[in-house]
Amino acid sequence: MEMNRERRTGAAGDGTRAVRRRGTSELNGAEMSRFALVAARDFKGFELGLDRIDVRGWPVFSADAQLVGGVDAMYLDPMHPAIRYLGISLGTPGNTSSQLIGRVMVPVGSARRHGLRKQLILSHITANQLAAAPRLRNRRVTRTEERATLQSLGLASSDTPTNGAAYVGPLFEESGLFAGDRVPV
To answer: Would you call 28 helix, strand, or coil by DSSP?
Structure first.
C-alpha cells in the first residue's frame, strides 16, 4: 500500500510517521472491518503491472462448459491489495434463462485462461451454482456478502474466516490468470 510521510507537530514534539493515504482505498479502519472487497476501478492507484493481463470483458465458461457471461470487475481486499475475486456479469446473447441474469463474484483461483484465447473457464463452478449465487450490488462488498458467496458456491462453511487468513491457498491464487498455468486447448 502506498505510504506518505506526514509531518507531526505539537506538544509531543516534532517527528515523522508513515500514514496510509485515505485516497488509496477511501476506507477508514471501521469501514475496512465491515467491507471486505473493493472494485479495482475504485481503488485509487491500483495497477495490474506488466506481468498481468486485464481480463475484464473476457467471456466466462462454467465448469459444465456453458457460456455464462463475462468478466466485468476485479475485486481487491483493501488491507492487502491483491485481486481476490472476479466480478461476472451473467447472461449471454440469446440466453433466455432468468436464473443467469445479474452480477456475481467468484474467487480468482477458480478461473483459468483457456490456452491463449481471451476467455476464462471456472474450474469447479457450474452454471447452476452461479444461478444460486448472491447478486452483487453497485457498492463495496461486505464480509457477510463474501461469506454468503463462498457458501453458495460450495467453497466455504459458515465458520470460514473472511479476512487475510482466508486468502491463503489455491482458491485465491492468481496464477491461473497471469502465469503459465492455463487450461490446455
So the answer is: coil
